[in-house]
Amino acid sequence: MTRLRYDQKRDANEPEIVEFLRAVGAGVFLMDAKDGWDLTVMYNGRLHILEVKEAGRYRLTKHEREVCRRMEEAGGTYHVVQSIKDAAEAIGLEFDDGHQDAPVRPLETTNGTQ
Fold it and tell me: How far is CA 26 from CA 73, 84, 95, in A?
């Protein structure tokens, strides 16, 4: 099996986000620039599309904006994440960065479901 490597075109914060997602049991797949997003994440039976941006560099490319628009028109969600906390929340976890080991738990919703 070929292992994908991080190259110069990937955001510097992506490896730590991927490591976190895998540590909480998510399946993480690295995408190519042509796909219009960085990570396809399967967690708790749900598919999540994540675009990783470095802090302060939130601007999406024209292609990313088009993919985001089409994804949302089809009923999906396109999450732009800049941190482990953002990634946790995108997949339905609350990241408690007030603790040294940064525990996570499912986010509460208004109807009591995840």
Answer: 25, 13, 15
> Rounded distance, CA 21 to CA 84, Å?
8
Residue 82 lies in a domain: yes
For residue 87, give the nearest of 49, 60, 46 by alpha carbon. Answer: 49
Q: How far is CA 90 from the centre of its chain?
A: 6
Q: Tell me: pLDDT of 54 over 80.
A: yes
Is the pLDDT at 32 greater than 50? The verdict is yes
- Tell me which residue range forms the domain holding 57: 14-92
The domain total for the chain is 1
Tokens of 74: 């089809």
What φ, ψ does residue 108 adopt, rounded to 5°?
Answer: -85, 145
Q: Give per-residue pLDDT as tens, 79-103.
A: 999 999 999 999 999 877 665 455 5
